[in-house]
Amino acid sequence: MSDLLIMTPGPTEVSEEVRRAMSRKITNPDLDPEFFEFYLGVSSKLQKVLKTKNDVIIMSGEGILGLESACASLIEPEDKVLVLDNGIFGRGFADFADLYGANVVKWDFPYDEKININKLEKKLAAENDFKFATFVHCETSTGVINDAKEITNLLNKYNILSVVDSVSAIGGVPIEVDKWGIDIILGGSQKCLSVPPGLTFLSVSDKAWEAVNDRETPVRGYYTNLQLWQNWYEEKYFPYTQAISDIYALDAALDKWIADQTIYARHKKIAEAVRKTIKRSNLNLYAKNGHSDTVTSIEIPKGISYQELNQLMTESYNVMIASSLGEFEDRLIRIGHMGENCYDAKLYRTLKAFDHSLRELGFELNVELHKIFVNQLN
Ligand SMILES: *Cc1c(COP(=O)(O)O)cnc(C)c1O
């Protein structure tokens, strides 16, 4: 496992600096006043990434915890919640909203393209009495990225709060939470920020705080109750003991991210080169449009199974790429080119392994993927 290159769309590779940060001496995060200042500092670094003045809360748990917390804290039974579904994660939001008793209205959009804004606009003109709407920024299952700015603008026009799962986009593509007017956006540590799995974070607008507070029924949950986080700094109180070593790691990753002036340009350049490479070959990209600069989905050629491809790639070439979920399992392979994965040499090694493995499994590639990739970079 030691030199296995993890090119999945999360968890991503973790840098030496970040790993070292996790070994720092800890303190008691409930009692040490310095830890509260430290946590505030990490939160303000996340505000920089998200371009927001809204509160940013860091919670111990994976991305799903952020998603569930937003639903648990906002929803009262029978609240009307709009779920925009153009992928597996998008669809999954409906289950969480349902779990907390919402009256869920789900609008389906094709999975192989970004949400069509004109279509959404028409539907919203006809029905818009929603407390909030959810959508996924980057659908990690397919590599489709939605136009978060346009969608949020529309929702704001009708005073619908927005809850945006940006787990696999934050840090890899430009995001302007305040300018775009996003009420709750949530991320995870293990995607573009390249911290081990374990943390989720979310920003909460004043309007969202009002909705979280203005409830007639109590929040059905404790770990997922955002109300408990409102005055953590003033009261020097966390609802539970913080995962201090994970937060050390996040802090180190954020320092690295902030110092990297070329991060978005690098994601764009590498993602475009990967896509052009696939387009030049006799393989097919899954998405028709809305290609994310953080993850690419490629159709698995007929007659090859993900399992045998993965086994060959990991055992013979020490590179791991992912399959997809749900109905896409065994249909798509996904290469994560986000965060620490997003370097020319790592994509070169990945595409070379992919190229050789496909040939060994009997697929006749018409070009050499890694060589085409290099040409696309210039
Ligand atoms: C990774 C991810 C999450 C977190 O889910 P896990 O499958 O548990 O890692 C949530 N939403 C999106 C869009 C993600 O990419």
UniProtKB/TrEMBL annotation:
One of its GO terms (biological process) is glycine biosynthetic process, by transamination of glyoxylate. The keyword rRNA-binding does not apply. PROSITE patterns: AA_TRANSFER_CLASS_5. Substrate binds at R334. The keyword Cell wall biogenesis/degradation does not apply. The modification N6-(pyridoxal phosphate)lysine is found at K191. Its cofactor is pyridoxal 5'-phosphate. Keywords: Aminotransferase, Pyridoxal phosphate, Transferase. Belongs to the class-V pyridoxal-phosphate-dependent aminotransferase family. This is Serine--pyruvate transaminase. The lineage of its organism: Bacteria, Bacillati, Bacillota, Clostridia, Halanaerobiales.
